[in-house]
Design a protein that fits this description.
Blueprint (H helix, E strand, L loop, with lengths): L5 E4 L1 H5 L8 H12 L3 E4 L5 H11 L4 E4 L4 E4 L5 E4 L4 H14 L2 E6 L2 E4 L4 H10 L4 E2 L3 H4 L6 E5 L2 H15 L3 E7 L2 E6 L4 H12 L6 E5 L5 H6 L2 E4 L5 H4 L4 E2 L4 H14 L2
Parallel strand pairs: 1-2, 1-12, 7-8, 12-13, 13-14
Antiparallel strand pairs: 3-4, 4-5, 6-7, 6-9, 9-11, 10-11
Helix pairs in contact: 2-11
């Protein structure tokens, strides 16, 4: 019997294939893991409403880690276990600065996707997430309370420069991370996958060394560091692989299955 009792896996470029689908092999492996009594959940930067269809396909009736960890909410009951939105004062500062640079901005409020204008980057994001945006014009007029997070879309080099500019000012105030090379995300200081996973482990009475985290990107680092076993799939960048306890040979979902079979199913 496996010593692991809780597993959290990222969606994009991890559980999902390049067509944003869960393969039958992945579904069967997760079903087998859950049959052993192990809790399995999704940990993603996606919106809750964007992650729920995958969770329901897998039959997951437990809290999902969404919005990078800002919202931990049950896939079926809708019960909120944990919520840490981005303070509005910081969101306004970020939006004002990004506007000056002309980059695309997403804001998220009440599980709604808000955009100031229709852009190619925004359309690509909508297609990828499966969520239709509300084009609202001035975000600062529509944000009446703390947004769940703010996301900026631009070329990776530009985002790296923006992150370097913001990092000193917002150190110990907010969390800044890339979820994809061209997505830079701003969230509450505690809105990380690692912090959310720790909360979920406490909720289920699971020890840290009984947790597996599986991911591929920069926004997975905190949960990889927290988990007793941090697994990185084979398609991840080299700098992320260096943070892993185990790097799968397989990419995406095949890498997840490889880890599940090795560490939980004993195959």
């Amino acid at each position: 019997m496996s010593k692991y009792k809780l597993i959290a896996a990222d969606l994009d470029d991890t559980l999902l294939n390049d067509d944003l689908q869960l393969t039958d092999r992945v579904r069967k492996a997760i079903k087998a893991v859950r049959a052993t009594g192990v809790h399995f959940t999704i940990s993603t930067g996606r919106m809750f409403r964007s992650a729920v269809p995958y969770a329901r396909y897998l039959g997951l009736d437990l809290p999902l880690i969404t919005y990078q960890g800002a919202l931990v909410k049950n896939a079926l009951s809708g019960e909120v276990l944990f919520y840490r939105p981005l303070p509005l004062v910081y969101a306004r500062e970020i939006i004002n600065r990004v506007r000056e640079l002309g980059y695309h901005i997403n804001a998220y409020l009440d599980d709604r996707l808000l955009m100031e204008q229709d852009t190619p980057g925004g359309r690509q994001y909508m297609q990828f997430s499966g969520v239709q945006a509300e084009i609202v014009g001035d975000l600062l007029e529509i944000l009446y309370s703390d947004p769940t997070k703010v996301l900026v879309i631009a070329d990776e080099t530009l985002l790296d420069q923006l992150s370097a500019e913001f990092a000193p000012h917002y150190r110990n105030k907010i969390h800044i991370s890339k979820s994809k090379p061209n997505y830079l995300e701003f969230s509450h200081l505690q809105a990380t996958k690692g912090y959310a996973l720790a909360m979920l482990a406490t909720h289920y009475g699971v020890k840290r060394d009984e947790v597996i985290a599986i991911g591929d990107s920069y926004n997975d680092v905190e949960m990889l560091d927290y988990a007793g076993l941090g697994v990185v799939v084979g398609n991840a960048r080299e700098e992320i692989k260096k943070r892993a306890d185990y790097v799968s040979k397989g990419a995406n979902g095949d890498g997840v299955v490889e880890a599940l079979e090795k560490f939980v199913l004993g195959r």
